[in-house]
Design brief:
The complex is a heterodimer. Chain A is of the alpha+beta class. Chain A has one helix at about 1-35, and strands spanning about 40-50, 60-65, 70-80, 85-95, 95-100, 110-115, 120-130, 135-145. In chain A, the strands form 2 sheets. A 4-stranded antiparallel β-sheet of chain A has the order 1-8-3-6, covered by helices on one side. Chain A has a 4-stranded antiparallel β-sheet with strand order 2-7-4-5, with no helix packed on it. Chain A is globular, with a radius of gyration of 19 Å. The model of chain A has no long low-confidence stretch (mean pLDDT about 90). Chain B starts with a helix and ends with a helix. Chain B is globular and about 45 Å long. Chain B contains 13 helices and 4 strands. The longest helix of chain B has 26 residues, at about 175-200. By secondary structure, chain B is mostly helical. In chain B, β2 and β3 (about 265-270) form a beta hairpin. In chain B, the strands form 2 sheets. Chain B has a two-stranded antiparallel ribbon. A two-stranded antiparallel sheet of chain B has the order 2-3. Classes of the chains: A alpha+beta, B mainly alpha. Chains A and B meet through α1, β1, β2, β4 and β6 of A and α1, α2, α3, α4 and α8 of B.
């Protein structure tokens, strides 16, 4: 009977932990959507990456995204409070950097940046963490307006 | 039992605290773009498509364009839900879920909340039929549709529900249904654009239709990953007819540099490289006719 109680408790605790985790992720997305401002939500990208070991490549989340000419889009990154690394969101057109939430030259950081798209194409969005540390963050793609 | 519970809880919390340990922040200047970023961007386009691009078909931009051009809302162009009971196959369910998704986006953007409940009931029905109804936030959408002031939340929850259904299909090995659903969104958005173009002959609307040539090709490429399935092969054949109508349209790009504008601490990137399309009125009329025929055939 005691053994049954133990098993029941462990299963119960696992379910509670999982539920809390899921709820927290949904809350983090909601908060980040609010941070994006008065825009139309398109996609969310909750990202959790492990840290890079010595001599290893830093893990990166990547996603292909279609963007249309004549639209202003907003990219937003919200690093989770408990994250070790600070999240950075970058958008590339093939190998050309279009925009980044972090300017390596000036050190300036932007929680959001807007992109006035004039070329309909598939762009690549990356989310990574500074210095290849482990971390968790939410990226948001939203539509600001028709240009 | 309580003593045991306390010990287990304490251990669980300690592990969680260790896992989520917050370490010192990195000074901004020390950030280096990981090499993997550059490595990954060297992937071929076809390899990237296997991940299926997000936003390949988005009703939000389409409806936003209609609104910016002051195109009035028109209920007669959106798909009727009266054929719902005829959608018996997974293919028909997924395609029409996409079609209704576009219509819901259009309805939401125009704030026509009285129509929302009809479409969310239909979408819930189709989503349940595909075993993805748990990702469609029907209860919240229903509640939000009762109040005209909830438009932003309606758009957010509708889009999020759609994304979650789509992601689950891909993750659960049903990428074929995701591809069909995305095609449904694409066809309906293009159809609405064509109907309003026919009504208004608006040049900006005409350009936006012509610019879809590129994304139509991407949609067909995505479907081609599953072309061994008869229903998808049939859908590709239908879309190929539209592709043929698009064929004479010239799509190119004009070179230009990027401008980075910082205003009040916010960054805006302006792209001066731009898509350029060349087409004639006859070519556009041909596309409009084809898309109308195909869309009406596919939703029956």
């Amino acid at each position: 009977m005691k053994k049954v109680n133990k098993v029941f408790y462990v299963v119960f605790l696992s379910i509670v932990c999982f539920s809390v985790e899921a709820q927290t992720e949904a809350q983090r997305i909601d908060l980040c959507v609010k941070t994006a401002g008065d825009v139309e939500f398109l996609y969310d990208y909750p990202t959790q990456l492990s840290g890079a070991g010595a001599g290893e490549k830093a893990p990166v989340f990547r996603k292909a995204i279609a963007l249309r000419k004549g639209n202003r889009y907003r990219f937003t990154i919200c690093t989770d409070e408990e994250s070790a690394g600070e999240g950075v969101l970058q958008v590339y057109d093939e190998n050309k950097l279009i925009g980044s939430s972090f300017n390596t030259e000036t050190g300036a950081e932007y929680q959001s940046f807007d992109f006035d798209c004039r070329k309909t194409s598939i762009y690549i969005m990356f989310i990574s963490f500074k210095e290849g540390k482990e971390g968790s963050a939410v990226g948001i793609l939203s539509h600001v307006k028709t240009l | 039992m309580f003593k045991y519970a306390f010990v287990v809880t304490a251990i669980a919390l300690a592990i969680r605290a260790l896992v989520s340990c917050t370490c010192s922040r990195t000074p901004p200047g020390e950030f280096v773009v990981p090499d993997s970023v550059y490595r990954v961007t060297m992937k071929t386009h076809e390899e990237m498509l296997k991940d299926v691009a997000d936003n390949l078909s988005s009703p939000i931009e389409t409806a936003s364009l209609f609104k910016s051009l002051d195109v009035p809302f028109s209920q007669k162009y959106i798909a009727s839900t009266k054929h719902l009971s005829d959608y018996n196959t997974s293919y028909a369910k997924a395609f029409n879920l996409g079609v209704f998704g576009t219509d819901l986006g259009y309805i939401n953007m125009y704030g026509k909340t009285s129509l929302v409940s009809v479409y969310i009931i239909a979408m819930k029905n189709l989503a349940d039929g595909l075993n993805i109804g748990q990702f469609f936030n029907y209860a919240t959408l229903k509640r939000l549709s009762d109040n005209d002031r909830n438009i932003d939340s309606l758009i957010y929850i509708s889009q999020q529900s759609f994304n979650r259904m789509d992601r689950y299909l891909r993750r659960s090995g049903r990428g074929n249904l995701s591809a069909i659903m995305i095609s449904g969104v694409f066809v309906e958005a293009l159809y609405l654009s064509c109907r309003f173009y026919r009504e208004t002959s608006n040049q900006r609307l005409g350009e936006s239709i012509a610019e879809q040539k590129y994304l139509l090709a991407e949609t067909v490429k995505m479907l081609s990953l599953y072309q061994s399935q008869k229903e998808i092969a049939d859908l590709i054949a239908e879309l190929s007819t539209i592709e043929a109508a698009f064929a004479p349209i010239e799509v190119g790009s004009e070179e230009g540099s990027l401008e980075r504008i910082e205003e009040n601490g916010a960054m805006r990137v302006v792209q001066n490289e731009k898509t350029v399309v060349r087409y004639t009125t006859e070519q556009l009329d041909n596309i409009v006719s084809e898309i109308e025929n195909i869309r009406n055939r596919l939703i029956k």
